[in-house]
Amino acid sequence: MISLESYHQTYTYDTGNNLTSLSHQANSSAWQQTIAIHPNNNRGTETQQSASDFDANGNLLGLNNIGNLEWHYNNTLNKLIKADKTNTTEYCVYDYQGRRIRTVIETNNQAQSQRDYLPSLDISTKQAKQQTSTLHIGTHILSESSKDNTQIPNQTRYQLNSHLQSNTLELDDKAQTLSYEHYYPYGGTAIIAGKDKTQVQQKRYRYTGKERDDSSGLSYYSARYLAPWLAKWISPDSQGADGLNLYVYVGNNPLKYIDPTGRVKVVPFDMDLEDYEIDILSPIEGTYQNNNLFYFPKSYERLEKIVQTYPANKLDILNDTTKFIIESEDSKGALRIKARSFPSSTSDFQNIMDFTTGQLTFKSNFRDKNCTSDLNATEAISYQYLGMTKIAGALNMLPKTFLREGIVNSSTQKAIKIYQTDGNYPGFYRNFVGHSDNGRSSLRLANTFSLKIVSIKLDDTRISAGDSIFLYLKPKMPLISAEKPLPPRGDMQDCFTPDSRLSRIRRQTNRCTIL
């Protein structure tokens, strides 16, 4: 029988926001942990520091009583040489985007176990050829199956989470308790209990829903690793995207903030949805790259300047009403972020950016005519896009495709019906871009992103409330100054619609001199 008691912890920080000591007081025990901070930076260790504690990039090289760390040139953890097991090393393998896809543990150069990470699936293989597969169903449901001589039955683990997305209670498919875990503020385990020792050992996804490595005790957050007992990251934020202290975790406020990607802290809003708000005007670290996105630094910088010059009242509205929902890379293999702004009860701007495919989907963008705010869709989506790129770490990246999904706008439906009748694509392009509300709004936004709509495609096969239109984009040069305001929506056709081939030929002919 486990005996529970209350405890009291006191955290002490220095002027650089570094945790320097932790005091734990309980009836049965008391202990204190001290963290040594380098006098010239924010690097912290459990013992007095030496020059060999960190590499030139600021990555921690050793964990007391755990082992030595080695890093790749791009600051991803390469291997852990175990201190408590002779000739035992854990290796980590990453893909081209820096996501961990495999871990291997070797003893005397012989593989003891291996874990491969696929989209929504983990496969663990031990030396004795025992193989366990973990299928991620949604965010907090794990289905585990084994292939070995013991014939362990398949098991589904339903993980109930806290407001920080930490997995606290695990149930089986009969609602029987498998494990319960309570966490200290920075992710250490205060108590863990389970149906039996095996069930407790099988739990890997824990504090804030992240995987804790058995070999090191580190929690993996895609971009970085967290050491819960140090209350710090073990590698720095190279661009200072989350404050001046490059190692501090969520601004030393782990009861309010979480960090889903290891890049920047966000505020969880809803217990059932991963719903966040973020300061979109602060710098971001460019860690996400994908060939399905345009790499366009000048345009991205221009977009930032446009948003920064919004009137204060509009920025206040967007800051107060915009929320972000993340579909994690780890659980579904694709990085999709949903943004929603609702300046009034009858106005809603809701859009989704799929960074894996490079597609920005317009879900719902309307403003009630009686709304006191004059915030428009272009302003809201531009603001939202900066926030989504900050969360994703997609610095200087722009979408290659727009998708107008479930179209119900009457002027756009009119253009679609004409095209379905006559099949005239040039006419459809002109009617959509120049005369429909959705088309002119798309053109406005494309211009704000310094992108050009090169073609459109009607897709009436999608399962939605209305038809859908794909808009294919390319970078637009030269850039228009960020200080130059966009013309009213009614004038967009004359200013930004590309000339037709026939009009260009006529203009060139008029300029010719007949000899």
Essential attributes:
alpha+beta, 515 residues, 33 strands, 9-stranded mixed beta sheet, disordered C terminus, 10 helices
Description:
The longest helix is centred in the C-terminal third of the chain and has 16 residues, at 377-392. Helix 5 (377-392) crosses helix 8 (437-448), helix 6 runs antiparallel to helix 7 (425-435) and helix 7 crosses helix 8 (437-448). The N and C termini lie far apart (105 Å). This protein has a domain at 267-502. The protein is of the alpha+beta class. It contains ten helices and 33 strands. Strands 6-7-8-9-10-11-12-13-14-15-16-17-18 form a 13-stranded antiparallel beta sheet. Strands 23-24-26-27-28-29-31-33-32 form a nine-stranded mixed beta sheet. A four-stranded antiparallel beta sheet has the order 19-20-21-22, with no helix packed on it.
Strand order of the largest sheet: 6-7-8-9-10-11-12-13-14-15-16-17-18
Mean pLDDT: 83
Which sheet architecture does the biggest sheet show? Answer: 13 strands, antiparallel
Alpha carbon gap, first and last residue: 105 Å
Q: What is the percentage of strand-forming residues? A: 25-35%
Alpha carbon gyration radius: 27 Å
**Shape summary:** globular
- Helix and strand content put the structural class at alpha+beta
Number of helices: 10
Low-confidence stretches: 270-274, 490-499, 505-515
